[in-house]
Automatic annotation (TrEMBL), chain A:
Subcellular location: Nucleus
Domain of life: Eukaryota
Function recorded in the entry: DNA-dependent RNA polymerase which catalyzes the transcription of DNA into RNA using the four ribonucleoside triphosphates as substrates.
GO cellular component terms attached to this protein's record: DNA-directed RNA polymerase complex; nucleus
PANTHER family, sorted: DNA-DIRECTED RNA POLYMERASE II, III (PTHR12709), DNA-DIRECTED RNA POLYMERASE V SUBUNIT 7 (PTHR12709:SF3)
Signal sequence annotation: none
A GO MF term: single-stranded DNA binding
Xref: InterPro entries: NA-bd_OB-fold (IPR012340), RNA_pol_Rpb7-like_N_sf (IPR036898), Rpb7-like (IPR045113)
Example GO biological process: DNA-templated transcription initiation
Entry keyword Electron transport: no
Keyword presence, Magnesium: no
Protein name: DNA-directed RNA polymerase subunit
Keyword annotations from UniProtKB, A to Z: DNA-directed RNA polymerase, Nucleus, Transcription
TrEMBL record, chain B:
Protein known as: DNA-directed RNA polymerase II subunit 4
Stretches assigned to the RNA polymerase Rpb4/RPC9 core domain: 16-138
Pfam family, any one: RNA_pol_Rpb4
Annotated GO CC locations: RNA polymerase II, core complex
Family: Belongs to the eukaryotic RPB4 RNA polymerase subunit family.
Source taxon at top rank: Eukaryota
Gene Ontology MF, one: nucleotide binding
InterPro entries cross-referenced by the UniProt entry: HRDC-like_sf, RNA_pol_Rpb4/RPC9_core, Rpb4-like, Rpb4/RPC9, Rpb4/RPC9_sf
Gene3D superfamilies named in the record: 1.20.1250.40
Protein location: Nucleus
Keywords noted in UniProt: DNA-directed RNA polymerase, Nucleus, Transcription
């Protein structure tokens, strides 16, 4: 689910840039904020950081003693994405492996659907392997699939979420391309 | 949320931030990110340095999974869903998945059938009909 959040961060502006003042200073703060936002990438609680959407307030700058850099508290609105346990989502098949498939969903491609969680589908090997059930419903690369999130965990080292998902439930499985 | 184990979106047991904060439908995110994408390209001479992978992948995703494309239809979809007693999270799941039948809607968002909700099957049916009308006239 995508979520609009409000955050307060500190942005550090190097002493050299401070001389310009006024609008240029504001622009420097925004650019620095957006860089940091993009490089932070994700957090356990909020999920993936998508984009800064609004600037609410730039507080009083505080000079740091040794460097002369100035630290500005900034309040801003942003867009985040997080997968929740029990949530039903749609994704696109990215990779087919013997024991399951990886799906892309939102900003992540670490969404794993194990063959155990789609028991009626059987692996069909070949140059382009697929999963298929008795009703000839196919799960292949680029198929759009509706699934339920069984669990999601945050891996700090990679700043990535890994999710395990399932097709066990009503109205889950491949969706026809025309309906989207 | 006291513990992660208890989280279950199907029963609307989700973190406070998701219950109170504003959730967004894919189609709304698509409008925001597309606008942002244009801004970023104007701001920087070398757009690739500004646009993160997370941003790019999400833009692709929400464009593909948006049920409503034009801004008016997106606004109307939220307006219709807002008439019903739905949590933000439920509203967005329905707007994203656009279930065709009451049974499908309840399978997608089981919490709307919880006892004490002022939402009977008739109301759900009307909601789904109104939503499908937007799609027809888009």
């Amino acid at each position: 689910m995508y979520l609009k959040s409000k955050l307060s961060w500190n942005v550090i502006i190097p002493a050299e840039i401070l001389e310009v003042g006024g609008l240029m200073l504001q622009k420097a703060i925004i650019v620095r904020l957006m860089d940091e936002f993009a490089s932070k990438k994700a957090s356990k609680n909020l999920g993936y950081f998508m984009a800064v959407t609004s600037l609410e307030k730039i507080g009083e700058g505080k000079v740091r003693e040794h460097t002369g850099d100035v630290l500005f508290p900034v309040e801003f609105g942003c867009l985040t994405f997080k997968m929740l346990r029990g949530e039903i989502l749609e994704g696109v098949v990215d990779k087919i492996l013997k024991h399951g498939v990886f799906l892309r969903c939102g900003p992540t491609d670490k969404v794993y659907l194990s063959h155990q969680k789609m028991a009626d589908y059987k692996y069909v090997p070949g140059e382009n392997p697929i999963f298929m059930n008795e009703k000839m419903s196919r799960i292949e690369k680029d198929t759009q699939v509706r699934f339920i999130v069984v669990g999601a965990r945050y891996v700090e080292a990679e700043k990535e979420f890994q999710a395990v998902v399932s097709l066990e439930g009503d109205y889950l499985g491949p969706i026809s391309q025309s309906s989207v | 949320m006291s513990g992660e184990e208890e989280e279950n979106a199907a029963e609307l047991k989700i973190g406070d931030e998701f219950l109170k904060a504003k959730c967004l439908m894919n189609c709304e995110v698509a409008l925001i990110l597309e606008h942002k994408y244009e801004q970023l390209q104007q701001m920087s001479d070398d757009p690739t340095t500004q646009i993160s992978q997370v941003f790019e992948k999400s833009l692709q995703y929400v464009k593909r999974f948006s049920r409503y494309k034009n801004p008016d239809a997106v606004r109307q979809a939220r307006e219709i869903l807002s008439r019903y007693p739905l949590a933000e999270f439920e509203l967005c799941v329905l707007g994203n998945l656009c279930p065709e039948t009451v049974e499908e809607a309840i399978a997608m968002v089981p919490s709307i059938k919880n006892r004490g909700r002022a939402l009977d099957e008739e109301a759900i049916e009307k909601m789904l009909n109104d939503l499908s009308l937007i799609k027809k006239f888009e």
